[in-house]
Each structure stands twice: as structure tokens, then as C-alpha cells.
Amino acid sequence: ATITEAQRREAWLADRRTGIGGSEVAAILLAPEDRPSWCSPLKLWLEKRGLAEAAENNAMRAGKRFERSILELYAETRGVAITFADPWEFVRDKQLPILGASLDARWAEGDRRPVDAKNIRFKDAKWGDAGSEQIPLYYACQLAVQMMVTGTEVSDLAVLFSGQDMEWFTVYRDLEIEAIIRARVAAWWERH
Q: pTM higher than 0.85 for the full model?
């Protein structure tokens, strides 16, 4: 029997409910002022318990819709080849299997770094210069998890600001941060 895209998506959602994804780590690690409004420990708990569905807003739908185009523009701008990831694969951390990530793309050659795409309205003070490591903390958490599950030393965040300004940010692996993430996620999972 052929599996449809809708069935693959449902299987992916079910798999994600059995763990904590890279985009969810911020709900556990960060203070309210450092995380976006759509991300809270209570919302995460409700979703993992099956008591609420993850709400998808217009910004999230647009981001998903433009993801491939943002990644193609990133690859062209950087002059690198990328491989698009399977959108319905939840890659788990070998040390803490309840932790995982759904990747957008990876470099096809070289260090095979993960590349995550974002469609952002405007660039505010949370963002540094293009090419720097200065990004909002909730995205830094997500990239840290992507490096953990892929075993890579670096990752890129490809950002399209205002629908026209392509910039990328490079984040480097930090084993101390990874240890904190694993400890806090494991404790949250056990407690809740």
C-alpha cells in the first residue's frame, strides 16, 4: 500500500509527541522574556499529553511554504550545494533519544552542517551582523539540537528578512550548552 503525504505527516506528528523537538527546547530552557509567545512550558506539556494540538499560525504556514525557496536562495548566495531533508523525519539524539530535530537541509559536501530556514518580518536588535553567531536564543537552542542529532560542529540559519533580504548566521557547537540542554530536557520529561 502506498503511504500518502498526509499519513507521513501524521506519523511524524505522532513520533514528535514521544519526544522534545529542537524548536520546543526553548519552552523548557528559556525565561518568558527570551522565548516567543507561541512557546511555553504549559503549551508544550498540553501538546505532549495530547490535550492540545500545536497551533499553526499564518507566520508558521508562510515559513513552511517558503522554506524551500529560502534554502535555494541561501545555497545560491553562499555558493554551496545543499541536500533537502525529509520533512517527515524526526532525527533523535543518540545520547538522549527523547530529544530530536526535524531538519530543513544540510550541506551536500564538506562539514554537512544543518541549515535551518526562517522567514522573518524584520531584523530587530536580537540579530547580529550577517555571518555572526548573534541570533535570538530560541533559534540558538534549535540549532544546538540540530548539531547534537547530526554530530556536526557548525550549523547555519538562513533568514529571509522582509521577504527580500537574505542573510545567514553561523552557530558553532558548544558541548557545555549541549550538556545543559540534555540535563534540563531529561528532567522536564521525567517530571512531566
A: yes
